[in-house]
Amino acid sequence: MSSTRDIDNLIELMAKLPGLGPRSARRAVLHLIRKRALLLTPLADQISVVAETARECLNCGNVGTADICDICESEKRATGELCVVEDVADLWAMERAGVFKGRYHVLGGTLSALDGVGPDDLRIPRLRDRVASEGITEVILALNATVDGQTTAHYIAEQLDGQVRLTSLAQGVPIGGELDYLDDGTITAALRARKEL
Ligand SMILES: [Zn+2]
Questions:
Q1: Are 92 and 128 within one domain?
Q2: Does the residue 181 lie in any domain?
Q3: Whose CB among 99, 107, 156, 166 lies 3.0–4.6 Å from 188's, allowing a Cys bridge?
Q4: CA 77 – ligand 1 centroid, Å
Q5: Structural domain span for residue 11
Q6: How far away, in angstroms, is 61 Cα from ligand 1 center?
Q7: How many A from CA of 90 to the centre of ligand 1?
Q8: Measured between alpha carbons, how far is 8 from 14 in angstroms, rounded to an integer?
Q9: CA 9–ligand 1 middle distance (angstroms)
Q10: How far, in Å, from the CA of 104 to the mean position of ligand 1?
Q11: What helix, strand, coil percent values describe the chain, rounded to 5?
């Protein structure tokens, strides 16, 4: 048995993380081993904790450690505005910008004929329920400016037509750009200048 097998396994796992390839993974693992007490042990402990506690909010799909997330629980966020995003990373990007005071709905992807993703594979039925039951007055579609993102936005707009005010983020979100990659100022401008659908 190779004396480096455990470490090689760790490198292989780390290399699967977004943004890391084998080379960055090797550097990261070496760094962790050198900073065993300061970094490696606390990281390993925290990964175990999160592996036990992380879950999706049953209401909106946000990731947290409770069945219902803090945003859904907060009375202050019950403004009647619901911001629809594709992914939790987009929700977190909106929260970093700190400009939106309502609640969110995470679809969990986009409609895609090519990949066989239909409305029931996303949280679209749940979105309809929420609009009907939560006193929602405006749905803001903050979907990415990709073909699938826009197809999904049009589908949702059709589904909710006449039930609620529908808006989308202003242009300024780059084509193919994901919210997570935008700076806070751009997100804020795109939300403030949102347009009717
Ligand atoms: Zn939630």
A1: yes
A2: no
A3: 99
A4: 11
A5: 5-53
A6: 6
A7: 14
A8: 10
A9: 35
A10: 7
A11: 50, 15, 35
